[in-house]
Model the fold of this input.
Amino acid sequence: MKKILIQYLYIFVISLIMLGVFTWANACEEEVKQQDIPVCEELQVSTEEKPCKKDNVSMSTIVDALEKLGESGTLPK
Done:
């Protein structure tokens, strides 16, 4: 009986250690994900090396971009 209780104690301790390690690793992974995409600074161009996201995209911004594409001849008429 004593051997079985000691074995369960070992299993419990190992389980706690694994839970702690996985929780710590998951927390670090989420922290890295949040740092991956910085917010664009003013006049910064987003590239593959320096990606960024803009929070304030309005319809006028999209219309202006489409007009510039039309003027450059990139879009078909």
The chain has one domain: 2-72.
